[in-house]
UniProtKB/TrEMBL annotation:
One of its GO terms (cellular component) is membrane. It comes from the Eukaryota. It comes from Euphydryas editha (Edith's checkerspot). This is Major facilitator superfamily (MFS) profile domain-containing protein. The lineage of its organism: Eukaryota, Metazoa, Ecdysozoa, Arthropoda, Hexapoda. GO terms for molecular function: transmembrane transporter activity. PROSITE patterns: MFS. Keywords: Membrane, Transmembrane, Transmembrane helix. It is found in: Membrane. It is a multi-pass membrane protein. Pfam families: MFS_1. GO terms for biological process: monoatomic anion transport. Residues 23-171 form the Major facilitator superfamily (MFS) profile domain.
Length: 171
């Protein structure tokens, strides 16, 4: 505070909101990588050239089955867009983002075992769940931006966060 005029001084530099935005970008990047990683993994999982190798399990999924598995994420994603916004409005953004991160992490860690013991149908169900939880992310982050950021910074920071998702999603 400027003591002579009673005007608050501007603080420049990095603050808590900058760290929050970095964490939000990293969270969203991790979930977008989880979303797209099966598109690469499914190529190795269905490589018929490796079926004679006893150490590698190859799944005999035709192109249609592979397409169903990969698209199943977006079934859940499409269904939960509007309910995700309502959940974020009612419960706030933090618990929704936390639940999405944890549930997607558990599914990603368990997915190799799920494929082996459950088959492609269970993989589809897991991908639908991943889509449902990730559909809640964008409304939740918008809710958090509204609470964490000054009004004049919301568009700048949301552009940085959402731009970072696609910029660093190399998978």
């Amino acid at each position: 505070m400027n003591s002579s005029k009673g005007i608050p001084e501007k603080n420049y530099g990095y603050g808590v909101r900058h760290i929050q935005m970095l964490c939000m970008t990293l969270n969203l990047m991790a979930l977008f990588i989880a979303r797209s990683s099966l598109g690469i993994a499914i190529l190795a999982m269905t490589d018929m050239k490796k079926r004679n190798d006893p150490e590698i399990i190859v799944y005999e999924w035709d192109k249609r089955t592979q397409g169903v598995i990969l698209s199943s994420f977006f079934w859940g994603y499409a269904v939960m867009q509007i309910p995700g916004g309502l959940l974020a409005k009612r419960y706030g953004g933090k618990p929704i983002v936390l639940f999405a991160l944890l549930s997607n992490a558990v599914i990603c860690v368990l997915l190799p075992s799920i494929v082996h013991f459950g088959g492609w149908q269970i993989v589809c169900a897991c991908r639908v769940l991943m889509g449902m939880t990730q559909a809640c992310l964008l409304p939740s982050t918008i809710t958090l931006f509204g609470k964490w950021l000054p009004v004049h910074e919301v568009t700048s920071y949301s552009g940085i966060v959402y731009g970072g998702i696609y910029r660093f999603n190399f998978t």
